Amino acid sequence: MDWIQLPLGALQTNCYILSNQAKECIVFDPGAEGEKLVQWLNKNDLKPLAILLTHAHFDHIGAVEQVRQAFNIPVYLHKEEEDWLVNPALNGSARFQLGEVSGQPADYLLKDEASLEIGSFSFQLFHTPGHSPGSVSYFFEEGNVLFAGDTLFMGSIGRTDLPGGNHEQLLKSIHDHLLTLPEEVIVLPGHGPATMIGDEMESNPFLNGF
Questions:
Q1: Which one is the CATH code of 2-207: 3.20.20.150, 3.20.20.70, 3.60.15.10, 3.40.630.30?
Q2: Angle at which helices 34-43 and 64-71 pack, to 10 degrees?
Q3: Is-contact 47 65, C-beta < 8 A?
Q4: Which residues are CB-neighbours of 60 under 8 A, at least 6 positions away?
Q5: For the chain, what is the mean pLDDT?
Q6: pLDDT value of residue 99
Q7: Residue 9: pLDDT above 60?
Q8: pLDDT for 149-190, tens place per residue?
Q9: What span, in angstroms and rounded, lies between the C-alpha atoms of 162 and 209?
Q10: Are 94 and 88 in contact (CB under 8 A)?
Q11: What residues form the membrane-spanning segments (predicted)?
Q12: How many helices and strands (H and E) does the chain possess?
């Protein structure tokens, strides 16, 4: 298994591609530049199986429709944000000057805590609200990586000043779900560089006391 980080769009949102030896892959958070992303996947002979969304803020979903239609694959999203893909007011794109984002509903709605298997890929789902009500972190144990969206960053945490955000809830999500993982787990955030659970436990100023 292998993963690659592709920062996309004006906000440089990290899209991640997780692939196996058969060249099958999972696409996480295709946030923008859909044509570029589709071309990259085709150039690398990858066969997407699904789109997994950590949450449905506009900068994480801007290329969903292009990728979904190009490869005829399903989209997974937490049930708390069921309407966000179709509603610019909910996904935040109506608030910013980067163009409104809307598309079709997700094909599958995720529950709170469960496992998810897609082809040869198996994930543990953590419902990690705080940055947004339906934020989900996907733990891929085989690769020792956590796709954390905008929940946890290197030296920081997700913003909570957008509608549905809650600072205390975010800290609880991080404490209850993420900091219980092995310290060597690699955290793949929605923006910026990768980090590790142990490093954030030791040095993240927002997590003092945990």
A1: 3.60.15.10
A2: 40
A3: no
A4: 13, 29, 31, 53, 54, 149, 150, 190
A5: 95
A6: 78
A7: yes
A8: 999 999 999 999 988 999 999 999 999 999 999 999 999 999
A9: 25
A10: yes
A11: none
A12: 6, 14
Structure tokens at 112: 């709170």
Cα 27 to Cα 30: distance, rounded to the nearest angstrom: 7
Give the burial class of 154: count Cβ atoms within 10 A of its Cβ; 0-12 exposed, 13-18 middle, 19 or more buried. middle
Whether the Cβ atoms of residue 56 and residue 133 lie closer than 8 Å to each other: no
Predicted structure pTM score? 0.95
For the chain, what percentages of helix, strand and coil (3-state, to nearest 5) are there?
30, 30, 40
Mean per-residue pLDDT, 58-81: 97
Which one-letter amino acid corresponds to residue 182? P
176-187 burial string, b = 16+ CB within 10 Å, else e?
ebbbebeeebbb
- Measured CA to CA, the distance from residue 157 to residue 169 in angstroms comes to 12
